[in-house]
Specification:
It is a single chain. By secondary structure, the chain is of the alpha+beta class. The chain has a single domain, classed as Endonuclease/exonuclease/phosphatase (Deoxyribonuclease I, Chain A). Helices cover 26% and strands 26% of the residues. The protein contains 8 helices and 12 strands. A 6-stranded mixed sheet has the order 3-4-2-1-12-11. The chain has a 6-stranded mixed sheet with strand order 5-6-7-8-10-9. The protein starts with a strand and ends with a strand.
Length: 259
């Protein structure tokens, strides 16, 4: 089973950059998109029909602000996944951030995690989100659920996960508070699969600023991640960053499970 996560930085924008062709080639069983920034009925009808021909679509736009945030989970049509919009956290759910999908004992929690924003004005909001999500993860873990957590987490966990850590300690995405919030997910029983498989390997980035040719120089951040609960680790076949895929300032990441 192949899972893919991608912050598309505007779904209608990425459609103009070869998204449908990429989707056919990538052929995911489960796909989560972040920053969709549009309502379902704002997408061209032909595209909607094409997507629905292959996938069951859970489209979760922001209700708090039009054209902002939002996420979507697409699962292979008829595969039996059940989707729930939101985590039951009203302020977070109003922004269309997280979708919870379940299939038997497997739980897929995916979406667009809050950004601390310029001046760290949303840091308290992000800290509360991380604490609440960690409690949700703990509860699912105790219930014996196998969990996959993914999305644009808007935090680089360690210094190795960004090109210029010393310059960014007080900047959104690399503050001690945000990194502590990420650690709460690990303490709740989750494992950062890519880093576990590639300890000490630098240059594994998923987002690059549009300024200064950062992507060509690979001056980036690893803020899009797949975490799995420890009981699921033996089933992990592969975890990959697809840095060659263009169309957004983020690239897709994938996780494959063995049968």
């Amino acid at each position: 089973m192949k899972f893919i996560s991608w912050n598309v930085n505007g779904f209608r924008s990425v459609l103009k950059k070869g998204f449908m062709e990429w989707l056919e080639e990538a052929d995911p069983d489960v796909l989560n998109l972040q920053e969709i920034r549009c309502e379902w009925d704002e997408i061209e009808l032909g595209v909607r029909k094409q997507l629905e021909a292959g996938f069951d679509v859970c489209w979760f736009p922001s209700k708090a602000k039009k054209g902002y945030a939002g996420s979507a989970t697409l699962t292979r049509r008829g595969s039996g996944w059940k989707h729930t919009q939101g985590l039951g956290l009203p302020e977070v759910d109003a922004e269309g951030r997280i979708i919870v999908s379940t299939l038997a004992d497997l739980t897929f929690i995916a979406g667009y995690f809050p950004n601390a924003s310029a001046g760290l004005v949303r840091l308290p909001f992000k800290q509360k989100f991380a604490a609440d999500l960690a409690e949700i993860l703990k509860a699912r873990h105790k219930q014996g659920k196998k969990i996959i957590l993914t999305g644009d987490m808007n935090v680089a966990p360690e210094a190795i996960d960004l090109a210029r850590p010393k310059d960014n300690v007080k900047n959104p995405g690399f503050t001690p508070e945000e990194r502590e919030g990420f650690q709460a997910y690990l303490k709740a029983g989750m494992v950062d699969v890519l880093r576990q498989r590639n300890p000490g390997m630098p240059g594994l980035y998923t987002w690059w600023t549009a300024r200064g040719g950062a992507r060509a120089k690979n001056v980036g951040w690893r803020i899009d991640l797949f975490l799995v609960s420890s009981p699921l680790l033996p089933q992990v076949k592969d975890a990959v960053i697809h840095s060659d895929v263009m169309g957004s300032d983020h690239c897709p990441i994938s996780l494959e499970l063995k049968d």
